[in-house]
Every structure is written in C-alpha cells, then in structure tokens.
From TrEMBL, chains A, B:
Name of this chain's protein: Putative transcriptional regulator
GO molecular function terms listed in the Swiss-Prot or TrEMBL record: DNA binding
InterPro entries: Cro/C1-type_HTH, Lambda_DNA-bd_dom_sf
HTH cro/C1-type domain ranges (all copies): 10-65
SUPFAM superfamilies per UniProt: lambda repressor-like DNA-binding domains (SSF47413)
Keywords on record: DNA-binding
Lineage, highest ranks first: Bacteria, Pseudomonadati, Balneolota, Balneolia, Balneolales
Extent of the signal sequence: none
CDD domains per the UniProt record, alphabetical: HTH_XRE
Length: 70, 70
DNA sequence: ACGTGATGTAAAAAATATGTTACACACTAA
DNA sequence: TTAGTGTGTAACATATTTTTTACATCACGT
C-alpha cells in the first residue's frame, strides 16, 4: 500500500482572497487560528469535515485545496 | 457557521467494483474492515488521508465518494 | 444440519486532530 | 519608541478517529 502525503493551497488561496488572515479563515470554518496554522504548515492533515469547510470557505472543490500525492 | 454532514457512496462503489467486500477495500487502503464498516455506515467520517485512499481505491475523485451537505 | 464468508456491532485502548493558553518575532502605524 | 496585528510555535488537555478483539446474524453451498 503506497504511502502518500497531503499538500494544500491554503496560503495561496488566502492570499488570493484579499489577504485573508489565518484568523479570518479560522472564524469562517469554526476552528482556532492555531489549527489553521498547523494545517497550512502541513503539521497534520485536517479531518474530512474540516477539509470540506475550508474548501467551502474559498468556494473551491476540495481537491483544489488539498491534494494527495503518492 | 452552518453544520453539515458527510455522506458517502462506498457501498454503491463496492458493488460497482465487482462486489468488492469490506475486507478487500480495507486491505487496499490499509485499515481494518471494522473501520470501513463504520465509515460506510457514517458512524464517523474518516481522516482526509483515508478518504483520499478510499477514493483512490475506486479510481474516483474524492468528491464522488464523499459529499458534504449543509 | 453444518461450515464458511460477509456483514453489523460493541467496548476498551491507541493514535491522531483540535482547543487552550502562552510566549516570541517581524512588520506597520502612530 | 510604543502599540497593534499577523504569524510561528510549544505544552498540555480534550475530542475524535482507528485498532483490536470478540461475538452475533444472515445467506449460501454442501
């Protein structure tokens, strides 16, 4: 079973959405800014539900925000 | 912040992939069949990584396997 | 009736994600 | 310089996911 890693475009998307801050994104999706920070830095990957919420906050499909690379 | 719920097409996709058993899917993605069973029954939603692996096992984009409905 | 395979379910423990609090640094504005 | 804002990070606590083990039911073939 191949091991993969999850990458994300959060930093880029925040930038493209009017320099949205980590705090603003955190408020939109209902977590703390530390959680956003950790996910953005790929310290760990979010739950599926949180991933959906983040994608929704950017009005993007999930797979344009998070990608799984083998 | 609207609460949503996550639905999945695992049962349908297993069926469409030659009656793939829960055990076979579990082996493909590296978890136990109980985990597949629980996710299929929507007892809880999987981690993002596991969700990607399951989608990959069916050769489908993630959002055709899991959907987030508000 | 019997054995086997697929599935549903449950409890406890382990692993991982998230929250809380706190401190630090860089940058900008006053 | 001082205050404020955005960010990085760490330790500890809590919540959620996942594993392990075990037992049950149902359908099917022999």
């Amino acid at each position: 079973m191949e091991e993969g890693s999850i990458h994300n475009q959060i930093r880029k998307l925040r930038f493209m959405h009017g320099e949205m801050t980590q705090q603003e994104l955190a408020d939109k999706v209902g977590v703390t800014r530390q959680t956003i920070n950790a996910i953005e830095a790929a310290k760990y990957s979010p739950s599926l539900e949180l991933a959906f919420k983040i994608a929704h906050a950017f009005d993007k499909p999930l797979e344009e925000v998070f990608t799984y690379e083998i």
